[in-house]
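Action item from last meeting closed. Structure (283 res):
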């Protein structure tokens, strides 16, 4: 695996907390994700209508905390429909030390995508999957074209109390299973592994970053899910879970992937507004 060390002074978005912090969020509202899934299948964007076509690049999808790859099947299928080669992460469930997941699973998937497409790939991660994606982008900038996070609290773990309890259970399981193979602070913001270390630094300038979040998030505090760079942050209406099925999110993904391709091929883009506020992407 090729790895580039980023300068220590090149700090990323300010980390708001290294500890687990309870967030006062309406987790009950997450049941509305089903509405987003229904709306997706009725939306023109899901059938590739009015969206920029892909260039055949690989896109690796990384699931959320405690989730398997398979719930991202609608996103996987849609990416293929609009001209990309989508790859599931290869993990059974996202309930393991992220550093080990990267080394033992995701790096293999990335190598597979690189070999199949012959070009730098894109990463899309949902929630914890987005945090993992940003870490990989920091570790392998030569291989990553862009990173898109969906409701990913990469500035610290501020979540509903039930999520924090589940994370504590997973952490204890990791320590029991791996013992000395992981660091004592594993699965916390205080760990000194490559996964956490990479999150302390900016995404390399060669990697296009996008942070999609919702102020209606019922799982994590949305303020931990944005870069504070207006060119990279995209708020949408929806639920935390539902961002994986949200038509507005799919539109943003299609435009940002196309914009990345345009920037890297050094062509002058023709812009399509993603939302009001001046942001645009290529067609």
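Sequence:
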């Amino acid at each position: 695996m090729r790895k580039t060390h980023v300068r220590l002074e090149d700090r990323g978005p300010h980390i708001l907390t290294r500890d687990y912090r309870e967030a006062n969020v309406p987790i009950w509202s997450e049941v509305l994700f089903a509405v987003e899934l229904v709306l997706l299948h009725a939306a023109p964007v899901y059938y590739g209508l009015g969206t920029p076509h892909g260039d055949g690049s690989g896109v690796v999808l990384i699931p959320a905390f405690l989730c398997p790859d398979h719930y991202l099947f609608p996103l996987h299928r849609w990416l293929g429909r609009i001209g990309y080669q989508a790859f599931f992460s290869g993990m059974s469930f996202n309930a393991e030390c992220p550093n080990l997941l990267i080394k033992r699973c995701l790096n293999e998937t990335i190598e597979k995508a690189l070999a199949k497409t012959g070009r730098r790939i894109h990463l899309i991660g949902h929630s914890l999957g987005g945090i993992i994606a940003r870490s990989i982008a920091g570790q392998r900038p030569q291989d990553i074209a862009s990173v898109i996070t969906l409701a990913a609290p990469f500035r610290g773990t501020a979540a509903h109390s039930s999520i924090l309890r589940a994370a504590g259970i997973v952490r204890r399981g990791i320590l029991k299973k791996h013992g000395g193979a992981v660091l004592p602070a594993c699965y916390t913001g205080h760990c000194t592994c490559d996964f956490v270390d990479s999150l302390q630094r900016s995404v390399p300038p060669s990697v296009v970053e996008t942070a999609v979040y919702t102020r209606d998030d019922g799982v994590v505090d949305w303020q931990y899910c944005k870069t504070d760079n207006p060119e990279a942050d995209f708020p949408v209406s929806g639920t935390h879970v539902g961002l994986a099925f949200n038509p507005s999110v799919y539109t943003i993904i299609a435009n940002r992937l196309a914009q990345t391709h345009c920037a890297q091929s050094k062509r002058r883009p023709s812009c399509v507004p993603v939302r009001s506020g001046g942001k645009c992407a290529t067609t």
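Note appended to the action item: The chain has one domain: 21-282.
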